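Continuing the batch. This is chain 6 of the set; chains 1 through 5 are on the previous pages. Same settings as before, nothing changed between runs. Recording input and output for traceability.
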Amino acid sequence: MGRATKGSILHIPREGGHLARVYVDLGEVPLDDNHAVRSTPIEEIIDRANAIYHPYSIDVKNVAWHSVYEVGHHLTDHFDDVDTYSGERQEIAKNLIDFDKEWSTLMATKPEDLPSPEYLEEFYMKTAEFPAGFMTDYKPSLITGGTEHQHLAEGFPVGKRFRSARVNRRENAYPRHLGHEAVADGRYRLYVFANAAHPASADSKVRALSDFLTQDATSPFVRYRTEGADFNALIEPVVVYQQNYTEFETTDAPAAFRPPGRHLPD
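Output for chain 6:
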């Protein structure tokens, strides 16, 4: 992140050691511009970036994607003609606009007008989770439950984005990010983090949960499952054990959490 007399710039290193995302301040747009700034060629943007970086510079080898936009903030008074979607999204949309308004204002503020030379960097670091979606907190609704059981999973705040972690898949020992395993196929997902008991032991709470999920009439897997459909057609059950993947077999997992193709009890 840099500030200079030629404008401001935000430089975000990316993976690989040679990729970067660069936000370049093109300056204040005249009122009679009629959106002409959006046609600014990439070569001019690179020149502007190097003017801001001076006395340093960057040599741009390739631009995978770029866009020029003018900052504008508008919030509709309603997203739909029913209360399901708007009730959930309206507050989040307002929070996003409030954040972006503050951020864009800071980016356009002259360095000498900031509370301190480090203020812009400190604001970015403090709020970095917001644009990534981790600070979004949905209130109770049709799809978000209350917090009365939050103590059972303190590391996963109700209403906030699911945090991923590296795990080993038991069947092939591949290290994976748990969040990357979720495919956008329209299903709900049930993530179960097992207690310390071995998956095959009688003390396994996951085994008791599996019995409920597969056999109890009030189980959502049983109650909403259509005749002939797979057990996980509407909800994908996922279990994460504390044991190392070498310490138990796939067949030690109770029926509800066995891989697709494994038969469940009738």
